[in-house]
Write a structure and sequence with these properties.
Blueprint (H helix, E strand, L loop, with lengths): L9 H13 L4 H8 L3 H13 L12 H34 L1
Helix pairs in contact: 1-3
């Protein structure tokens, strides 16, 4: 028997997670209705609740995103320094040849 992996859309995952949060039906009932495993519903529900704060962020970067932009700035600065160094050395090597 060959089972193929199904890919669910973000809308479907959100719908299932919201149903799980409402707790109108039990998780096994939801799993049967939406044809997904109970563990998958748990995972989507947890992921939904963990990321709910992003909806109200109003464009403010999260702590992780702020850390990434600082790291990005640092890396761009380093790239600039290395480029200047490379150009300087390549000009110096050109004179020796």
């Amino acid at each position: 028997m060959h089972n193929t992996r199904r890919k669910h859309t973000a809308e479907f995952k959100a719908k299932v997670a919201l149903e799980a949060i409402r707790e109108v039906e039990t998780l096994p009932d939801l799993a049967k209705r939406f044809k997904v495993h109970v563990n998958q519903i748990h995972k989507w529900k947890r992921e939904f609740l963990d990321n709910a704060a992003r909806v109200f962020a109003n464009g403010e970067p999260t702590k992780a995103e702020a850390g990434n932009s600082e790291r990005e700035d640092e890396l761009l600065k380093k790239i600039g320094e290395l480029t200047v160094e490379r150009d300087f050395l390549s000009r110096g090597l050109g004179r020796l040849r």
